[in-house]
Amino acid sequence: MTHKIESSIDVNVPVSTSYNQWTQFEDFPRFMKHVESVRQLDDKRLHWKVNLGGKPREFDAEIVEQVPDKRIAWRATSGARHAGVVTFHRLNDTKSRVMLQIEYDPAGFVEKLGSAVGVPEIDAEKDMKRFAEFIEQRGVATGAWRGAIPNRDERRSDLEREGS
Q1: 88 with 76: CB under 8 angstroms?
Q2: 24-62: buried (b, 16+ CB within 10 Å) or exposed (e) per residue?
Q3: pLDDT band at residue 93, thresholds of 50, 70 and 90?
Q4: Which CATH number fits domain 3-24+64-163: 2.130.10.10, 3.30.530.20, 3.30.1360.120, 3.40.50.2300?
Q5: CA dist., res. 87 & res. 147, Å (int)
Q6: How far is CA 119 from CA 104, 114, 116, 162, in A?
Q7: Residue 118: Cβ within 10 Å count
Q8: Fewer CB within 10 Å: C terminus or N terminus of the chain?
Q9: Where are the extended beta strands (E) located within 68-114?
Q10: Are 52 and 34 in contact (CB under 8 A)?
């Protein structure tokens, strides 16, 4: 059974700062409780090590769409089935909203029980609060990747136009 998580937070930094920090995947362990490490393999591929309920897991993910200052969408390519998107919204020159949506299939008894009682939602909210505290204290991102990765429909449209 697919489980959905949604969480958002207003952050006291410009939208470009929120976005830039989120592109620094290898920094995720600094504010995400269950993430032990993220290794960026290339512009689109990531290798994750997480610990959920005392169970270490590893998986690979692919960024399927990335639009600077707007959104980053991904899907797992190995391990537990999941996908998600994080969007960035300008509230004013110095404030932004970060919205996270994840869909996943809980694996095993502990994950299914945790999902049933709302543990992933609570963890996501805490991770988002830690993200806000992290970037607000710094005031600047630890780095940035401003490249774009078009979604499949955009790539298909581009190919069709090139073929005309």
Answers
A1: no
A2: bbebbeebbebbeebeeeeeeebebebebeeeebebebb
A3: very high
A4: 3.30.530.20
A5: 16
A6: 14, 5, 8, 48
A7: 10
A8: C
A9: 71-76, 82-92, 95-104
A10: yes
Position 61, amino acid: A
CB of 48 closer than 8 Å to CB of 38: yes
Whether the CB-CB separation of 23 and 143 falls below 8 Å is answered with: yes
Label residue 162 by pLDDT band (50, 70, 90). Answer: low
Question: Which residues lie across from 57 on neighbouring strands?
Answer: 50
Q: Which residues lie closer than 8 Å to 95 by C-beta, 6 or more apart?
A: 10, 11, 12, 13, 14
| In the chain, where the domains are located | 3-24+64-163
Q: In sequence order, which residues have a C-beta less than 8 Å from that of residue 59 and are 6 or more positions away?
A: 47, 48, 50, 76, 77, 78, 79, 80
d(CA 142, CA 137): 12
Q: Over the stretch 11-49, which tens digit does the pLDDT of each residue have?
A: 999 999 999 999 999 999 999 999 999 999 999 999 999
The position carrying tokens 């994950």 is 111
Cα distance between residue 125 and residue 138, in whole Å: 20
